[in-house]
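User: Hi! I have a protein structure encoded as tokens and I'd like to know what sequence might fold into it. I'm fairly new to this, so please keep things simple.
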């Protein structure tokens, strides 16, 4: 974040947003491949890999959200409000779907893993 804030005037915002979306895609793909490769088994290796992937999600979110809000700030203020409201609605929908999958796979073996896999696909 400090690097992005310091070099703000030199970084093209659209390239920053695109880099964030590419990082989102790569992180999601690597998370799915990690799950398929380890078959859901634990250990220190998969734990550290998931930790690194979650950190990549945070960096990607900073790139996309910061760039989008920055671009929208030059436009109508209603656009920023709509963008933030859309993010809130997406978070609420994701939480509702997660609760639904927990209820569906409650009594099944490997239910937590199946529910998360269902959300990712």
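Assistant: Happy to help. Inverse folding works backwards from shape to sequence: for each of the 121 positions I chose a residue that suits the local structure. Here it is:
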């Amino acid at each position: 974040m400090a690097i992005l804030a310091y070099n703000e005037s030199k970084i093209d915002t659209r390239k920053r947003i695109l880099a964030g979306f590419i990082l989102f895609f790569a992180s999601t793909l690597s998370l799915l491949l990690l799950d398929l490769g380890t078959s859901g088994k634990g250990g220190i290796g998969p734990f550290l890999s998931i930790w690194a992937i979650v950190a990549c999600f945070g960096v990607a979110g900073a790139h996309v959200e910061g760039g989008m809000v920055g671009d929208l700030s030059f436009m109508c203020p209603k656009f920023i409000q709509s963008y933030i409201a859309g993010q809130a609605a997406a978070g609420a929908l994701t939480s509702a779907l997660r609760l639904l999958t927990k209820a569906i796979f409650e009594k099944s073996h490997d239910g937590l893993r199946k529910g998360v896999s269902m959300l990712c696909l």
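A useful reference point when you look it over: The CA atoms of residues 72 and 84 lie 11 Å apart. Feel free to ask if any position seems puzzling.
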